[in-house]
Specification:
The chain has 20 helices and 19 strands.
Length: 562
């Protein structure tokens, strides 16, 4: 490293070499200690230049052509959250620190670079210049280099994808994104990141989405062909206010990012699609939280909103449903205390405006809430027995308050009734056919299939009948429906359609879809177990290395049991 300190004479412009040491820090990175030539005080500007080489770390993902959709050229992307960007560039890798950035990226012929930046231009010699003039935490700096092209889909949005996917991406999102953005602005205030682009990643991308500012990275699984999963990006759009603009100061309070974002997402969907749809989607989320807490035990320390992350523990290892769904319940409780939706919406705008471009703690957020509503502060709402703010933050377990999801019952009840009819030993095909599911949206179908899965195995022959009666499920391109149909086929050992399981695993590598199917296969019949081994050996090269390792563990556990 070299440095100069601003404020001296002309000589101060020259860079001087500095003493530095690399010291152990944790299993996920080392610390760079730099000795400055003279003491500095607050307000001084210090320029430090670090020459470094990167590329082998976990934050930088190198894909072979086999792992892309086009299968022709390699691809590279970075994934910073939570603490992986330290392997991409030297940084204060904590969400407590925000900074602007610029980058010059030179790529080989036939490749394009894209970053999470507001300003960018292509210069000669395949060189791209990026500038992010708004301060962001290190985990939101993102880079992609690949054979990618773009198409405009709105006044401030474009989609990016490999050439073989760009038409599908344009068709799915043309004219869709602006409505989501405009609704978010109406509720939470101005969208400050100027553009909102969506980059469809290669099929091996293991996540659903990553909310990098200006450009969300998403799984190509969203390309269902009928826009039935288009609204999944509302969650990532909501991060534009909650997470990217107002950020948790440390990963132990991740609910400030995710709980507020879940609430914001559900406010947007309520405005666009109504309360019944939103409550049905929230019921699906609550079921995931129930499943998680049943698996870990309610009193597991990770089931708190304020998690103590010990030094040396990778924050990624604390990831679970709690900050999302229990966090959503806490924000819903704060809205419930106010008792007036428009007043709480106004509070959210004020909250964003108060803390924009800052990193905050739960104490900061809750103190602002009580200041904003002095009548609630006077009533002592933070210490109501059983619902104390301290209990919400520091006691593990099921949320003390659950928002009312009864408006969703008009969609849930028919789905539950239909699942019961299919599970009944007395088969009433007339009653089944009388229930028309042609107008059911994705979440109602998902809710129905989850109930069928719970009741599986069904009476003999019913899966075959269901498959032929509902081609919109059994032949769906929608990944949420395909996942559940595969799980149902495996639970009912309907091997006549096991090809659909194989096809789905060959078509994508998203962790949320891939792992449950392998778990279902290893817990299924001998045919299903053999299919798991055969499919993994064929698809392993196209999977992300983390997903490969998880699948190996699932297969190895089964081998050990046998």
């Amino acid at each position: 490293p070299g440095s100069r300190c601003e404020g001296g004479g002309p000589a101060s412009e020259a860079l001087r070499p500095l003493a530095f040491r690399n010291r152990p820090f944790a299993g996920y990175g080392s610390a760079l200690h730099i000795t400055l030539p003279e003491p500095v005080t607050g307000g001084d500007t210090v320029v430090v230049e670090v020459a470094y080489r990167a590329g082998a770390g976990p934050g930088v993902c190198w894909l072979t052509p086999e792992q892309t959709a086009g299968k022709q050229k390699p691809y590279m992307y970075t994934q910073g959250q939570a603490v992986l960007n330290r392997s991409f560039f030297p940084c204060f890798d904590t969400p407590a620190v925000k900074s602007t950035y610029s980058a010059v990226i030179k790529v080989p012929d036939g490749f394009t670079a894209v970053m999470s930046a507001i300003n960018w231009e292509k210069q000669k010699d395949n060189t791209f210049l990026f500038k992010m003039p708004r301060p962001i935490p290190s985990y939101l700096v993102a880079l992609v280099v690949g054979d990618i092209v773009s198409a405009e889909v709105g006044p401030r949005s474009r989609v990016w994808a490999e050439p073989c996917l760009i038409e599908a991406a344009k068709k799915e999102y043309d004219g869709v994104i602006e409505e989501f953005l405009a609704t978010g602005e109406k509720l939470f205030g101005p969208y400050v990141w100027e553009r909102y682009d969506v980059l469809f990643m290669p099929p091996s991308f293991p996540f659903g989405g990553m909310e990098n500012p200006c450009i969300t990275f998403v799984t190509p699984c969203l390309l269902a062909g009928d826009r039935s999963l288009a609204d999944v990006i509302i969650h990532e759009i909501s991060h534009s206010w909650f997470g990217n603009l107002v950020t948790n100061a440390h990963w132990g309070e991740f609910w400030l990012n995710e709980g507020f974002t879940m609430y914001a997402q559900r406010r947007i969907t309520t405005e666009l699609y109504g309360a019944a749809y939103t409550c049905l989607e929230a019921a699906t989320g609550r079921a995931l939280l129930r499943q998680h807490m049943d698996n870990t035990g309610e009193d597991h320390p990770l089931n708190k909103l304020r998690v103590i992350i010990e030094p040396g523990v990778d924050p990624e290892d604390t990831y679970n449903e709690t900050p999302y769904e229990k966090g959503y319940c806490f924000v819903s409780y704060l809205a419930h205390l106010v008792g007036d939706q428009s007043k709480f919406d106004a509070f959210l705008q004020a909250y964003v405006n108060q803390f924009k471009f800052q990193s905050i703690t739960a104490d900061d957020a809750l103190a602002f809430y009580l200041e904003y509503f002095p009548e609630l502060k006077k009533k002592g709402v933070d210490t109501i027995p059983g619902f104390e703010f301290d209990r919400w933050l520091n006691t593990p377990g099921w949320p003390p308050y659950l928002p009312d999801l009864s408006p969703g019952e008009e969609l849930m009840k028919p789905a539950e009734k239909l699942a019961e009819l299919w599970a009944s030993p007395v088969h009433n095909m007339e009653a089944i056919k009388a229930m028309d599911i042609s107008a059911w949206k994705t979440f109602q179908l998902v809710y129905f299939l989850d109930k069928v899965l719970e009741k599986s195995p069904l009476p003999d022959g019913n899966i075959e009948k269901m498959s032929s009666l509902y081609p919109k499920i059994s032949r769906a391109q929608n990944a949420e429906l395909r996942l559940r149909w595969c799980q149902i086929l495996l639970k009912n050992n309907h091997d006549a359609e096991f090809d659909k399981v194989k096809d789905f695993l060959h078509s994508q590598g998203k962790q949320k879809y891939t792992l449950p199917i392998y778990r279902a296969m290893v817990n299924g019949s001998e045919t299903a177990q053999a299919l798991a081994v055969e499919t993994f050996s064929a698809t392993a090269p196209q999977l992300h290395v983390h997903v490969q390792n998880y699948v190996k563990k699932i297969l190895a556990l089964k081998t050990e049991e046998n």
